[in-house]
């Protein structure tokens, strides 16, 4: 075990980078707007399901104007299988309305501006900033990043915002964009929520929760 958190984080990054050299954002998109919508849809939903839905969605709706040209109920039907479809449809249309009225139909490139859009909190904003614009505005904290950060002893916090603050102190800024991708890949393939595959884990010897589900 490496007691110093910064040293342990550096070793975690080194090993995960080697284990998942092809790690990337799993949400399929061709531009910042599509990524914004896909990330809103990804709340409480798998990326696989979102990609299935957006394959048709992005053919029907090309931009903010298209999403506002239909009734909310129609959009709800189109995104129904992602769950929480009423709230998601409402947020997407609210975001599109503001994009058109305030930002000329373009997705803004600052955290403060993104946070004014419907359905956008720090996680979504960080996803868009990092993967669409290549800007390291923070560390994306989803369920995988949250779970692994706690198991690996990088944080004792429970809320995404506080976990993000802890990770920003430990993870070098040059890795802010890729660190979540490595953690997500590891969370899906090895460090699962209910049955972590500790015997196959490249981090087993530096994990304080080895074999313990938390």
Q: Summed up, what is this model?
A:
The chain is 55% helix and 0% strand. By secondary structure, the protein is mainly α.
Q: Give the structural class.
A: mainly alpha
Task: Assign the CATH superfamily of the largest domain.
Answer: Hypothetical protein, domain 2
Domains counted in the coordinates: how many?
Answer: 2
How many strand segments?
0
CATH topology of the largest domain: Endonuclease III, domain 1
Query: What is the helix fraction of residues, given as a range?
Result: 55-70%
Strand content: under 5%
Tell me what you see in this structure.
By secondary structure, this protein is an all-alpha fold. It folds into two domains: 5-23 and 139-206, Orthogonal Bundle (Endonuclease Iii, domain 2); 32-133, Endonuclease III, domain 1 (Orthogonal Bundle), CATH 1.10.340.30. 55% of the residues lie in helices and 0% in strands. It contains eleven helices and no strands. It has helices at residues 5-19, 32-41, 47-60, 64-68, 72-79, 85-103, 111-114, 122-133, 143-151, 160-170, 179-189. Helix 1 (5-19) packs across helix 11, helix 2 packs antiparallel against helix 8 and helix 9 crosses helix 11 (179-189). The two termini are 19 Å apart.
List its salient traits.
214 residues; mainly alpha; Endonuclease III, domain 1; 2 domains; 11 helices; 55% helix; elongated
Please render the helix and strand layout as text:
Blueprint: H1 5-19, H2 32-41, H3 47-60, H4 64-68, H5 72-79, H6 85-103, H7 111-114, H8 122-133, H9 143-151, H10 160-170, H11 179-189
Helix pairs in contact: 1-11, 2-8, 5-6, 9-11
């Amino acid at each position: 075990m490496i007691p110093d958190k910064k040293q342990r984080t550096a070793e975690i990054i080194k090993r995960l980078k080697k284990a998942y050299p092809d790690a990337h954002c799993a949400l399929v998109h061709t531009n910042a707007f599509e990524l914004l919508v896909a990330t809103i849809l990804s709340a409480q939903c798998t990326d696989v399901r979102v990609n299935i839905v957006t394959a048709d969605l992005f053919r029907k709706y090309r931009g903010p104007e298209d999403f506002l040209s239909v009734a909310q109920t129609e959009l709800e039907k189109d995104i129904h299988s992602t769950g929480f479809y009423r709230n998601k449809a409402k947020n997407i249309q609210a975001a599109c309305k503001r994009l058109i009225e305030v930002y000329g139909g373009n997705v803004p490139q600052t955290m403060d501006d993104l946070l004014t859009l419907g359905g956008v909190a720090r996680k979504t904003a960080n996803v868009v900033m990092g993967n669409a614009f290549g800007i390291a505005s923070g560390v994306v904290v989803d369920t995988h990043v949250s779970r692994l950060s706690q198991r690996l002893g990088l944080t004792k916090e429970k809320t995404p915002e506080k976990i993000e603050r802890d990770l920003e102190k430990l993870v070098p800024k040059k890795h802010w964009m890729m660190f979540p991708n490595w953690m997500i890949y590891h969370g899906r393939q090895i460090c699962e929520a209910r049955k972590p595959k500790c015997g196959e884990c490249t981090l087993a010897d530096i994990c304080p929760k080895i074999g313990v589900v938390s």
